[in-house]
Amino acid sequence: MNRYSKIINKIKREIVLLKARPCKWGRCTFCDYIEDNDRDDKRIDEVNFEVLKNVSGEFGVLEVIDSASVFELTENTLREIKKVVEEKNIKRLFFESHWIYRNRLDEIRSFFKVPITFKIGVETFDNDFREGVLKKGANFKDYREVQKYFDSPCVMVGIKGQTKEMIDKDMEIIKNFSHATVNIFMNNSTEIKRDEELVKWFVEKYRYLEDDPHVDILFEITDFGVG
Ligand code: SF4
């Protein structure tokens, strides 16, 4: 598994995939990456401290992802990230958090004292599909509720059961955010399946997003170079 990479298009940044405690939500029907979660803080920190040694600060921007929320990192790992931020002159961080932590994001902001882009995996703004099928546990009804807390929604496309209309709507909605990530769903060990026809349609219609500086588009889950 590769845990360090650089994103050299769009917002240039280093990215680390750290180990975390079990995702507090842990019920999304399409998710099997929580298999990277661990209950042993010592083991988590050992991995994370090694990964963080790679960060050079060359872009002044660091993204930290962890197969859970930033709140599931250990205290020692958070302190180590902060040390890296100070030593390597990092001026902006990207973190990810589940909706359930929306009222705690300021804790992270005041701890790190640099601007943070908070990402949230919403997968889709279609409430029925998000909650009924994907079981995301993010029970907002309107994107403006998300906007109150988060900077950057991550949406998923190409899942069986999703429709072109849902995706078109999601692509419209993400324009209201300063940043967004679009993931094309890849089959994994869960029951949720990719819809190849829908993916083909999407790639043809939305390939121009590759040139949109505000949108990261991941044709494969490992396109950020980690995973
Ligand atoms: S919130 Fe994220 S890590 Fe947790 S189960 Fe859902 S997709 Fe997986």
UniProtKB/TrEMBL annotation:
Residues 13-212 form the Elp3/MiaA/NifB-like radical SAM core domain. Transmembrane segments: none annotated. InterPro entries: Elp3/MiaA/NifB-like_rSAM, rSAM_sf. Signal peptide: none annotated. One of its GO terms (molecular function) is catalytic activity. This is Radical SAM protein. The lineage of its organism: Bacteria, Bacillati, Bacillota, Tissierellia, Tissierellales.
